[in-house]
């Protein structure tokens, strides 16, 4: 099982990922297998990250569902969604196809779990809410029924059409029951963006009740993310965001910025309303696309939204929006307690001086005496720990009345306390691969950081920004001995040639000498650290046919598995490790075959499931009967 957890080549069958447009009906042809072993560790190993961590939570969720642990499964699926959102938010290098497939599988598992959930999470993706709403019973109500009368009365206070019908009434009931916790959280969060969004809607001459569209799209969470890779308050996909002028680069994703994305959404909604002249149809098109709604109108021969043949998601989307707008007018009438709203989104914007190529957000947060996360929350469009380097000067948001103080203090901050973004001047004979190799990073990072549409087309004297985090040079000396020497620059020398000739990375050479540009002059003294790899610690025999290895500083389980040509799973099993954490000085048994030591309560069947093998295979390997009673302390060989 552990090999499933620690490998991208997971045998879990994932769903095919086809291009998904907003509002298209979701069809799942494949299924996630239910015969998942139940020996998954309780705590996620600390060295698992990125997509593997999301997959780990997905597996635990599937396991929890088979054990009727719906709440635990829900928590794991929520966590898996958040990991995917974080990877996208910070432009973490990932396999986008793998991420998309994993997103589909997580959503599929969540949809399977829906019938067993008592309530939805605060940040449940919209598609789950719309699917949950489908389970509501739609009753035929007489015109004078209390729910319809209440809707009709409150709709007079709305500046957008609200229909008093059974589908809207069912949507209100959904928020009062399974969606109660979710809606309460949304109402509390609404205070943060109320003034901001409503001011923009008024400025664009739009109904202010469109405020509640952002509520059902994202729950007023700027970090909201869907498996279709729609993000932000208004859940723009990349191509739609680009269409309304929202930029997405290595440095920023303006879909996540509450101000810029609201302006983009307002103009998109204006276009939709001009096209349809009906807010019901415009909202349906926001969800499923202009073409789909137009085709539905032509097929039905009517412009009545309630009579159109649209995807179930879109049919639920419009009444859910109407329900949110109605409840928000008088929450107490619908059984919601009035909670204190979150503080409004408040900030001061400062234009960074031209002489600053960028600002390190970690250093800026310390100067402002706020948490790094708080500064990121004010600037959610930023995808890196620094502002976009170069021109034009970036406008950074800081807490109110802190702008002047920030500019003054940051100007006096030593460069050693800031992140490094090197400015490299391309030389004759350079190509993107040679530059990436010199700095010890991948070509994708350089191409993304400089918005290179064709990384193969760079020219001499072109300036490239090379990002590197503070302290990155430490990775070059991990597990090595160092000797320091000085090099005197000679005429004709270049920094990358010196680095190449001395077998060091260019970014390390620049860090050692506190250089942010590759310009050097003859006679200049440069510090060089000579790095010599240490020999791996030898193994010793324990007299039982096993080799014993003592863990050295810098070792990882993955490195040792490759060094000794065995699998990580076998290395873990041989040493009874529940995760991949090892420490210097720890002794590990190195065996060619998996060896397992029986503990009290083990059976041949439970051990077989632990290793993904058949009980008869293990019995034959160890010359025992499949029905044998296993004594604690017995060692068994596990066939590969």
Q: What spatial order of strands do you see in the largest sheet?
A: 7-8-9
Tell me the number of helical segments per DSSP (H or I, 4 or more residues long). Answer: 25
- Strands, count: 11
Q: Which shape, going by the Cα principal axes?
A: flat
**Helical amount:** 40-55%
Question: What would the keywords be for this entry?
Answer:
640 residues, 25 helices, two-stranded antiparallel ribbon, 11 strands, Lysozyme, mainly alpha
Describe this protein's structure.
With 640 residues, this protein is mainly alpha-helical. The protein folds into five domains: 2-117, no CATH class; 146-334, Lysozyme; 348-417, no CATH class; 422-533, Membrane-bound Lytic Murein Transglycosylase D, Chain A; 540-638, LysM domain (Membrane-bound Lytic Murein Transglycosylase D, Chain A), CATH 3.10.350.10. It is built from 25 helices and eleven strands. The strands form five sheets. Strands 7-8-9 form a three-stranded antiparallel sheet, with no helix packed on it. The chain has a two-stranded antiparallel ribbon with strand order 1-2. A hairpin with a 5-residue loop joins strand 7 and strand 8. Helix 2 runs antiparallel to helix 3, helix 5 packs across helix 14 and helix 15 crosses helix 17 (403-411). The longest helix has 24 residues, at 180-203. The two termini are 13 Å apart. 36% of the residues are buried.
